[in-house]
Amino acid sequence: MKGRLFFVSFVLFIGLFMGGCASNNFVYDRSIGEESICLLKIPDDFTVVKFDGKNVKWKTSVWGLNITQKKKVATVKIPAGEHKLIVNYLQRTNLGTYTRISRADGIELSFDFQPGNAYSLLPIILGDRITLIIRKE
């Protein structure tokens, strides 16, 4: 009986622990009504480090991989309106015997987000230049 109780407790603990780690969904301000919310989708290569001057760390979690997804995506509910984001970009590409790293830190983006819409961060890479854009889905 003790072994069974321990096993059930252990499984429950692991489920709760991993469930907390696996979240790729964030809410910036829970006091904002749903009618004033929009979604920002952050692909695996990005980390949003500031939102309107406040430090945040919005990125996909290590444990948040869904087997059906090819790439991980974090989703953040943000209030509609004009916002300024500071974003870091890091992409590692394995090319046989070596790894190519594309990196840019502190990229500033300003955008007017409309309520009820979803937006994604996208990179544009030309040579050694990396530009990020926000695209409405």
Order of strands in the sheet with the most strands? 1-5-2-8-9
**Count of helical segments?**
1
Q: What number is the mean pLDDT? A: 82
- Name the shape in a single word: globular
Radius of gyration: 18 Å
**How much strand content do the residues show?**
over 45%
Q: Give me the strand/helix succession.
A: HEEEEEEEEE
Helix and strand composition category: mainly beta
Uncertain segments of ≥5 residues (pLDDT<50)?
11-22
Helix content: 10-25%
Biggest pleated-sheet summary? 5 strands, mixed
Q: What is the number of E strands? A: 9
Q: Span between N and C termini?
A: 54 Å
How does this model look, in words?
- The chain is built from 1 helix and 9 strands.
- With 137 residues, the protein is mainly beta.
- The chain has a 5-stranded mixed beta sheet, with no helix packed on it. A 4-stranded antiparallel beta sheet has the order 4-3-6-7, with no helix packed on it.
- A hairpin with a 2-residue loop joins strand 8 (118-126) and strand 9.
- The longest helix has 20 residues, at 2-21.
- It is globular and about 50 Å long.
- The model is unreliable at 11-22 (pLDDT under 50).
SSE inventory with pairings:
Elements: H1 2-21, E1 25-27, E2 37-43, E3 46-51, E4 54-58, E5 73-79, E6 81-95, E7 98-113, E8 118-126, E9 129-136
Parallel strand pairs: 1-5, 2-8
Antiparallel strand pairs: 2-5, 3-4, 3-6, 6-7, 8-9
Characteristics of this structure?
single chain; 137 residues; mainly beta; five-stranded mixed β-sheet; four-stranded antiparallel β-sheet; 15% helix
Question: What's a quick, concise take on this entry?
Answer:
With 137 residues, this protein is mostly beta strands.
